[in-house]
Design brief:
The protein has about 130 residues and is mainly alpha-helical. It has helices spanning about 15-25, 40-45, 50-65, 80-100, 105-115, and strands at about 65-70, 75. Helix 1 packs across helix 3 (about 50-65).
Length: about 130
């Protein structure tokens, strides 16, 4: 898996690392069950602190995209569709912040969008 970060970017390095993994899962480069490189290895290759990589991995764990296993490392747990959606959500959040929207304003827009969207189809009755 290829990790790329831009040190001068306003996006925190841990978030950039998380975005690399989201992108890899979304495009099928990384699949469920695949192990991510050890944080120490990623940190050394990028020239960043190991805690920066761990922050990115922890964010992915909190999102449900990976599982962190003591002694076994980080393992991808989600399907590409969920990773694509997560990547789009993060892009929308970043754009909302660039536009100066508060979290409450952003959530109001999301709620309005959900209310306007068609209801999901009912599952087949058995």
């Amino acid at each position: 898996m290829l990790f790329r970060v831009v040190p001068g970017s306003p996006v925190p390095l841990g978030e950039q690392i998380a975005a690399c993994v989201r992108r890899a899962v979304a495009d099928g480069t990384a699949s469920p069950g695949e192990r991510l490189p050890p944080a120490r290895e990623v940190a050394a290759s990028l020239g960043v602190n190991i805690h920066t990589v761990l922050r990115g991995y922890q964010r992915l764990r909190d999102e449900g995209l990976i599982e962190l296993r003591r002694g076994r490392g980080a393992v991808v747990t989600t399907a590409p569709g969920a990773a694509r959606l997560s990547e789009r959500i993060h892009a929308a959040i970043a754009e909302a912040r660039e536009l100066g929207l508060t979290d409450e304003e952003f959530l109001a827009l999301v709620r309005a969008g959900l209310a306007a969207a068609p209801a999901p189809a009912a599952p087949f009755a058995r």
